[in-house]
Amino acid sequence: MDIITPALIAIIAHEFGHALACLCLGVRIKGIYVGRRGVGIRRADSSPLASLYISLAGPFANLALAFVPGFALPNLILCAVNLIPFPHSDGQHAINAFRALDRPILSTRT
After folding, report:
1. Does the pLDDT of residue 62 top 70, yes or no?
2. 33 in helix, strand or coil?
3. pLDDT per residue over 36-54, tens digit each?
């Protein structure tokens, strides 16, 4: 099998992971785009916890698909690259969502 087909399936699975998380969490999907920064979904605002789950759903979809024979390499690459916290990446969105969580366990306030 060539690398193009598994790579395209990896991209579709990645975005489907985000979309499925939105649907499960009741977050409205405004659209899907293809642009110079890649492929993505536009969605309504959500809570920090929902944003964290949605941000990580795409990379986790790739991680799951990496166990299918012939699909490991493109999915592992897409998962890893998207978790790097550079601007507009899933990794950066996840970090921002995590920082926005109200974490009373980690708080020093009494």
Report:
1. yes
2. strand
3. 878 888 999 999 999 999 9
